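Review form for a predicted model. The reviewer records the input and the model, then writes brief findings.
Reviewer: anonymous (R2)
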Amino acid sequence: MNDASIIQMFLNRNEDAIHEVDLKYGKLCLRLANNILMCKEDAEEVLVDTYLKIWNTIPEDRPDNLTAYICKIVKRLSLDRRRYKNAQKRNDEASGSIDELTELLSDQKNPEDDLIIKDLSDSISNFLLKENKTNRQLFIRRYWYYNSIESIAEQFEMNPKTVTTVLFRIRKRLKKYLEKEGYDL
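Model under review:
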C-alpha cells in the first residue's frame, strides 16, 4: 500500500492504518528505536507509542514524506525514553553518536526554538549536499539512524578506525561550515 493511501486511512480514522504502517515501517522503526535504546523491550514500547502518536497527530498533520515523519517520531520518543532511563549514565553507543554532534552545538542558547532548529537543519542538509555520497551515507547512518561504528564499517566494507576518522573529519568540516553560516559554536 502506498503512503498516500495510508495517510488517507488515518484521515478517515480507519484503524487498519496502524496495521498498514506496521507492515510497511515496523521493522525500520524497531531497528531505529533499538539503535538508540539498545534494549529490545524498550524499542517495542516505543513502537507502540509511535503508532499512538501517529494516530493522534495525522488528522492535523498531513506529512509529505510518511517515512521521514514516522522516523522523526520514533527518534524523538526513543531519545526521550533513553534520557528518562539513563538520566546520568552516558556510556552507551547511541550516546556516543549524539555526543559527537552535540560537541558542535552545545553552546546554542535556545535549542528548543523551532526557528533555530529549522534553520540549523537546513544548514546541515545544505552542508551534506556538498559532501560526496559515501560521506553523506556515513553521516546519516551514524547520526540519523544511530548505527554503531562497527555496523557502519561492516556495511561499507571499511575499517572501523577509518569510519571514525572520516566521521571526525566530516564533523570538523560541518563545524567550519556552520561557523561560516553564522552559528556561534
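Findings: DSSP finds nine helices and no strands in the chain.
Further findings: The CA atoms of residues 9 and 15 lie 8 Å apart.
Recommendation: see findings above.
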